[in-house]
Amino acid sequence: MGIVPVPKVRIMNVNQGEGESQVPSKWLTLRDVQALDERAALGRPMLALRQEALTRFLSLPFPATNHELWRHTKTDLFDWEGLRNSSVVDFKLGLTESGSASAASTETLTSALPEGVTLSVDFSAYASQLGDLFGERALDLVENSPAQMLLAAASAGCVVHVAKGRKIKEPLLLSQVVKAASTSAAPLIVVLVEPNASVTIVEDIELGAWAGLYAPRVEVVIQANASMEFVSIQRLSNAATYLGRHRFHLLRDASVRSIHVALGAKTARLDLDCKLYEPGGQADMFSLYLGAGGRHVDFHPTQWHLAPHCRSNLYCKGALKDVSRSVYFGYIRVAEAAQKTDAYQTNRNLLLSPDARADAIPNLEIKANDVKCSHGASIGQVGAEELFYLMSRGLPRAASEKLLVEGFFADLMGKISSQFARDVVDRVVMEQLYA
Amino acid sequence: MTATSGTASTGSATTETTSAATADLLSISDLRAGIEGKEILKGLNLSMRPGEVHAIMGPNGSGKSTLSKVIAGHPLYPVTSGSVKFGGEDLLSLEPDERARKGVFLAFQYPQEIPGVSIMNFLRTALNTRREKDMPVLEFRKLLYQKMEMLDMDKSFATRFVNEGFSGGEKKRNEILQMAILEPRLSVLDETDSGLDIDALKIVAGGVNRIMAESTNKPAVLVITHYHRILDHLKPDFVHVLFDGRIIRSGTSDLALQLESRGYDWVIEESGKSGAH
Asked: Which of A91-105, A355-369, B81-95, B127-141 has the lowest mean pLDDT?
């Protein structure tokens, strides 16, 4: 039996046939996949998985620009074809130096990991689990075809494994460095947290002036009664693009707390799924995004309630200036069997310039009849009365606005428990908004 | 510049030696202003000197709140004509933050909530805009606690977000706390007494009195109020009646007592509603 049960209820989306296009066969061939597999060297089971993913990718239509999930962020913003030549990624996992932003550099990571935590690039030992994770044949939908391509084209990978019962107090930093001067990287990161274990993992995606497509796929499995905190900071250069798929798979009484911060790239899209397979699951997910310059940031969170008595809450805020743009497309999906679900989603946007734009599209698909679900979204500007109040105390306009933006993000910043992460986010947000 | 004045227009024996044309701290002349095209102030005149307490009383709609917003520089209340001078300099051409740094302070009638910004952080930032060098955090905290104690405010307020979840009385007290920290030269109290019970009123008025006594820059206070109550505890040197956008009568604190017992009608009738002063 694998680690992830096949859902008894299928959440099916009626594919109406529009918004599809033919996949150009040159995008990814079997030869490409074999070459990528050889370069990445993730162990024998991966090749079979990749081939299966490739087959499914080529058989599914690719989302066209009028597909609901890609309408606001056109698929042609990403260099899919370039993924054939993705580069290897160097992974390191270690303790962060407290309070030091420079801890992101791999030299300062301590090499010794706490007992019970392993980092490996060989997926062989996890063959059956991976099969379950990526199996999901029930969900062969158009919107999944990009994900299939990313799996087939994975250019690097690692597994972080936390053994049963191990409670790791110190946050661990997973650093990712792109080795070659390449135009894309597609890492596959699996985090496996065994029953009763707990761990905090921080990733700080900072690749200097690198201008390629970074397309990570992160699969986190939190088994019975285990808990995990995940902090993900994305601050790629303004010439790079980011296409991420993060998924949390929660089993019985598992809990996850996540903070995703999007501060970089010219186009950034993150699909964040939280899947609650068994009763007792708890998920608190927070997200902060920043638009500056001409950035386009797209966030697709989905809370999947597949079992009863689970709770999930997604709280997301963004501030946008210049001509930047954000899209928030959130979903809460509750299966028929998921009675007593508590699920909430909130998105708040602050526009700091007349040309900035935010779109918020929250959705609910509820098939059970005894649930509590709500979602809320708002888009607003800095309040004129608040601004006047601060200015009337002597703060110049820019300083007043800055204080109001700090106030806007204050509750989210309070959710970041890692001092290292808080310092980075604080500094970068203020730099981008008020440099 | 040398002393020139030989006229003793105020009856004072001292001659003025400042280079400014007048000793007035605030000098409002024929001020006309309104909101959304409607004129509310219709030629208002007022002079205040350092250290003086002036009260402006008047019925609803007379323009009391508009006056305070115009002095502070609220963008929605444009001035159509007239002048306002502060310390001899034109005030109307300055942005709200510039006016504040020159020493103008408005205690709002309806103070704004500023979520996510603590009182400590906010006030230290505001104070530092008036200083050459930032005040160290520890020194500021000591100053803040001292002023909070004077106003009988619990220390826990320092880390609370500005006005968030505060009762009406707490918000008003927070305004006076800001006044205590920022030490303005002119404070406009816009109906600070509204919504306060007698105990809170005494604390607020007592706070203002103490600020005036302890401050080194002879602050003047303009108390805008509908009711007489606060003037029992914050004694005005001058009382003005504002009606239909003009000051129609000025007097001493006795005038306030008369208004309390007789209302506004008699003043309005006696002035013939013309308002010229």
From this structure: A91-105
Dihedral sign for Cα atoms in the order A324, A248, A408, B128: negative
A243 to chain B, minimum CA–CA distance in Å? 31
Give a yes or no: residue A36 inside a domain: yes
Domain count, chain B: 1
In a domain? residue A399 = no
CB atoms within 10 A of CB A166: 18
Domain count, chain A: 1
CATH number at residue B100: 3.40.50.300
**How many beta-carbon contacts under 8 Å exist across A and B?**
80
**Pairing of the two strands B186-190 and B104-107:** parallel
pLDDT digits (tens, 9 = 90+) for B88-118: 999 999 999 999 999 999 999 999 999 999 9
Nearest CA in chain B to A388: B74
Q: Which residue reads 């034109």 in tokens? A: B90
Q: Under an 8 A CB cutoff, do A391 and B95 touch?
A: yes
The proportion of chain A whose per-residue pLDDT surpasses 90, expressed as a percent, equals: 57
Its pTM stands at 0.84
Residue B239 maps to a domain:
yes
Instruction: Show residues of chain B in contact with A391, CB under 8 Å.
Output: 95-97, 100
A409–B116 C-beta distance less than 8 A: yes
